Amino acid sequence: MSERNDILGEMNDRSREVFRRVVEGYLATGDPVGSRTLTRDFSEKISAATIRNVMQDLEFLGLLDSPHVSAGRIPSQLGLRMFVDGLLEVRDLDRDDQQKIDETLGKNAGDVGSMLDRVGSALSGVTQGASLVLAPKHEAPIKHIEFVSLAQDRALVVLVMADGHVENRLFTPPPGQTPSSMREAANFLNALIEGRTLSELQTVIRDEISRRRQEIDQLSRALIDSGLAVWAEDGSSQERLIVRGRSNLLGDAQGEEELERIRTLFDDLERKRDIAEFLELADQGDGVRIFIGSENKLFSLSGSSLVVSPYMNADRKIVGAVGVIGPKRLNYGRIVPIVDYTAQLVGKLISDRT
Questions:
Q1: Architecture of domain 2-86
Q2: What is the CATH number of domain 95-137+285-353?
Q3: Does an H or E element contain 260, and which?
Q4: 146-173: per-residue pLDDT in tens?
Q5: List of residues 6+ apart from 273 with CB closer than 8 A
Q6: Terminal CA-to-CA distance of the chain, rounded, Å?
Q7: What region holds the Heat-inducible transcription repressor HrcA C-terminal domain (predicted)?
Q8: Gap between the Cα atoms of 306 and 133, Å rounded
Q9: b/e map of 299-320 (b: 16 or more CB within 10 Å)?
Q10: pTM for the complete prediction?
Q11: In the chain, domain spans
């Protein structure tokens, strides 16, 4: 984001105004914006030729695109991202929009599922876009868990609960993980589930990690005391045992067995750490975000944007999210406060029920 802010900061006032007006014009109409359109209501007297030169410079920077042979320009995905991050003016929530949301959610009757259905309807109706509603996390015992790799930096965890409820949660996996390592993690967890909830499963894994550390300490102590091994202190959280005088152990079958056992325990400890990190990431919620075009892995093929905001329970813990899906030329300044207000209202209603 800092690189985008640098580009914005290096623009002069004229370039910034041309850029802002092209983006705002495109968001309002969906059409390319031409130089002649800009000259009519520009803040200073300036020729269409000068504006065309500025637009060409912005296109060279990757902020504008030319969709047709015409002189009109539209913002690129990078341009939209920079506009949203640095120039977007978020309006106050419109009173009519607030009233429509309040009327729909004010009927605080029925179960949580019914209420969230009304939330979806309200968001769709007010924004004229598709709504996205993630229900509160289900803390029932888990029957089965599966990790699915969607992209290098995105994965899906599928939780099948004992009561038949199914949850899909997106998360960013630890660096270096592969579909194969995710399958191994899922197989390990499924062998441990036995009707446990996700938080209980995390406790079990932490206990397993603690036991592995104790086993390693016990087996390594004799080698360290004899001077044949030493703990390496490299500033990282990963323990390393450096064996000295390896030749002294070659004739000692028991020593070789202990080393192999320690090596196996280290491998096991590392796998369990990865699994613990998987579970922790799967149990976290994303913060408020705007995804534009291909930034949004789920809707990238359709070129859609997603404005999503989490909602919290009475303990200030993220338990779900609401959002709006629409074209890249969403009226972000209007949609952001609508989604934010709806998320806060849902959080309050959820808290009142607990």
A1: Orthogonal Bundle (1.10)
A2: 3.30.450.40
A3: helix 253-282
A4: 888 877 777 778 888 887 777 777 777 7
A5: 209
A6: 39
A7: 115-336
A8: 12
A9: beeeebbbbbbbbbbeeeebbb
A10: 0.57
A11: 2-86, 95-137+285-353, 142-282
